[in-house]
Amino acid sequence: LFPRAGLKPPTTWQQLLADARVLKAMGVTYPIALPLGPEEAEAETLTWLLAGGGGYTDNSGSYALTSKENVSTLKWLRSSLVAEGLTGPTLPGKFNRGAALQAFMDGKAAMVNAPLSLMRQIEDSTLSVPYGTVALPSRTGRTVPTMGTADWTIAFRSAGHREATGKFLDFLYGDKYVTQQAAEYQLLPVTTAASAAMRQDKQYSKLWNGLDALGNMELYPLSETNWSQVVASIRAEIGRSVAPGGDPEAG
Which residues of 82-98 are buried (b: 16+ CB within 10 A; e: fewer)? Predict the structure, then answer.
């Protein structure tokens, strides 16, 4: 869609807005997908907040959901993208990530914030989907932190199997298996050694953009005891805040 429109990937919000207008005029259903439905709204939200210079927490680690940067970002999404119909016919609060990714694969969405696993979906699909990957445009065009997610493996040593547990974890996180898992599922490796090795190996070049972003990544504030409650609130409310007539400051 971008080559057909004669466009280059945007690096600023103003460029993104201009490109989305061109794509809409071409008849693209979702010039920029904005899935803020309950499926995984916290990921899409954090991605945009970081691009706007904010985030879920401040420098001290305390929640800053209604900071001026965050409110400004949500107002921009509401007034610039949603209000002009550039996010498609489905309201963001009703649009889930899975539907957004499928719209991209179907050629109905021109831009989407997606996990690296989308590349694997495209490769495994019978559809012909030419695509490119770039960093999310930021408010000013400057590099901003990337949204990251993390899962945890916890081993308990109280049962008297500390040595066996250690051997298992050494096996689990060995370079061979970490690299195999990352390559098979289009994920980023969880160890420094595997990351460095994959960055030097051209067969993993499709993951290089993601690998380069690891050093400037912001995770969910999982250490906060009420994070699960905050996630539930984001999933329920964030879509309404950017809808026509919504109030980003209400949170």
Answer: beeebbbebbbbebbbe
Residue 244, number of CB atoms within 10 A of its CB: 9
**Widest CA span in the chain:** 66
How many CA atoms lie within 13 Å of 176's alpha carbon, on the beta-carbon side? 3
Domains along the chain?
A: 2-147+226-250 (3.40.190.10), 162-211 (no CATH)
Predicted TM-score (pTM) above 0.70:
yes
Tokens matching residue 85: 């119909």
**Signed CA dihedral, 123, 131, 182, 54: sign only:** negative
> For 86-96, what is each residue's pLDDT tens digit?
999 999 999 99
Q: How far apart are CA 49 and CA 145, in angstroms?
A: 10
